[in-house]
């Protein structure tokens, strides 16, 4: 199963998309080099639960979203 996150930013710098479980453990990471588009994340290996997704860049505030994986 794949989840898609759409984003748009005016900053051309590299960004990192990270996924954390509720214990704060990083369970996925993906580098993003575009200013807009779609991030695709496979959740096939993630157990059911709630996750925090963070898109961050060096000079801007991170964007956070919640992800709920159900089986």
Describe the protein's architecture and organization.
By secondary structure, the chain is mostly beta strands. It contains no helices and six strands. The protein has strands spanning 2-8, 15-21, 26-32, 36-42, 49-57, 60-69. The strands form two sheets. It has a four-stranded antiparallel beta sheet, with no helix packed on it. A two-stranded antiparallel sheet has the order 1-4. Strand 5 (49-57) and strand 6 form a beta hairpin. It is globular and about 35 Å long.
Helix-strand layout with pairing:
Blueprint: E1 2-8, E2 15-21, E3 26-32, E4 36-42, E5 49-57, E6 60-69
Antiparallel strand pairs: 1-4, 2-3, 2-5, 5-6
Question: What is this entry, summarized?
Answer:
By secondary structure, the chain is an all-beta fold.
What class, by secondary structure content?
mainly beta
Write down the secondary-structure element order. EEEEEE
Shape type: globular
Major beta sheet, strand line-up = 3-2-5-6
**Computed Rg:** 12 Å
Features:
two-stranded antiparallel ribbon, four-stranded antiparallel beta sheet, 71 residues, mainly beta, single chain
